[in-house]
Fold this sequence. Notes:
The chain has 21 helices and 18 strands. It is an alpha/beta fold. It has 4 domains: 104 residues; 249 residues, 3-Layer(aba) Sandwich (Rossmann fold), CATH 3.40.50; 72 residues, no CATH class; 87 residues, no CATH class. α2 crosses α4 and α6 packs antiparallel against α7.
Amino acid sequence: MLRVLAGLSMLLFLSCFPDFLLFVVGSVRGGREEVSFRRVAVLAVVLLIGFYLFVKVHPGFRGVGFDGALSGLLEGLEVVPLMAMVGVKLGVFAWCLHVLLGCRRGDYVGVVVREYVVGEGGCLGERRVWLGRPVVFGGRFNPHELYVGGSGAGKSNAVKLRVGQLAGDASRSIIVFDWSGEYLYLEGEGFRVVDLAEGCFNIFACHVGDLVDAASLAFPGMGDVQRALLYEHASSACSLEELGWELERRFVREPVFNVKGALMALWQRLKVVMGEVKGFGLDPERLLYGRWVVSFSGLGVEECKVFLAELLLRMLFREALRLAPLRLTLVVDEAHRLLGHGDIGQRRVEPFINRVMREVRKYGVQVVAASQRLSDLPDSCLANFGRLIVMGNLSPVDLDRLGGLGWHLKLVAERLGVGEGFDLREPGLAERVVVFRFNLHRALREGLPAARGGRQGYTSCRVGVAGGELTAELSVDDRRLLERLRSDEVLLKALWAAMEGRRVKGFAELRRLGLAKEVAGSVRLTRQGERLVKALGLKGGVEAGRRV
Length: 548
């Protein structure tokens, strides 16, 4: 009898062994969502019982004797409750081991709390899971992720957990758009923080059409006349100050009253940006490599945040086209800020984040976004998300939209608590909905850092020049370009020619770097180019560069 039981235990062991291997490999290499942790617990019980039976039947163990088959069977049955208790403990230990390993690597983001099963006759059954499997977000064919939920549903907490998991991949670059300063804690975890209020990118280095579209989205009510005026004057301007001067000069000599009003309104909008941004020097191309937190918390006006975010997305997209393939994750928390502005209802300008979600996957870019409203995203964008997490506190419009996908999805969404959600892309959702609860991120347990400004990464630098020293405030990007100009004779000659309004070999590279610009058939230095000319000590550089 004992030999028969030992054989049965071996069969059970072999049936559960694949799950055991998946458990071990998944714990080491990132987790597997398909692992059945109940079978792992059964495996632990079978191993213990099998070991006991092996000791009893193996002739090499001394002191093992049975007075008949019946006494042996009774003796084996006496320890079954004890073995079962120890086996359950081992199963719980195996489950906890996976949880602890997942917490250490950031793979474990939550745990299944209940399941809803669609029954016959339109009924929805609920089953609580007291010891459910941990939720590990593994790789999928489509890497884009969207977290949708109302205010206070726990979207930001879920995104923080996901960022922590992605940060475990040392080869992956990450860009986080931080609106309110709640991701500044990442500065101590290998991320670099860029405060756009202190070190913004050159907005005139991008295509003028992108500049006009970003302004149209950021400033609601911007009509066709203002768009045309901005396109006309931004094409020849190199800075906000110069653009403002051009608009004021046009305002003085403009005879048409309506155009005068449009000029004044446009200038007032641009003054908002001028008052918020205090410095320049950020190179968007650098953000594609490494790990960065782009902080908008130092900007006090919402329209300015949206304007710079739209422009930065466009510039990053163009750079990604040029440098593809990449291994980059773009994290946009509170994406509804970019979806609720501009002439969206009139279909004049589409928020650029919609295009980013549709097209960047083929360039090696993953998008992780969170939004309060599911209805803000068109179906063409939602179809591009491989994981769509629905959380609580949804608006009635979003609930009705879920109801159109399945009557039971609306009921489940209405019952979600804080920090709970389900995956709208989970297979078998028409029959069963698995609800999981996200863990509480460390930054929320310990308290988020306050939004802080300051010149992070932008320090004073003394640059040696002929005839003495010049003390100038140069950004990290300025110093990098300065070293390149000093080591590249072709670029230095092209910069000298651009100061005099001439175009020579190397001008295309200067324009790509944002140091020079072509205006009305001639050449003009940008503000950044003028700063570097001063740092290099080229005589008469600024005056010559301003001639057209």
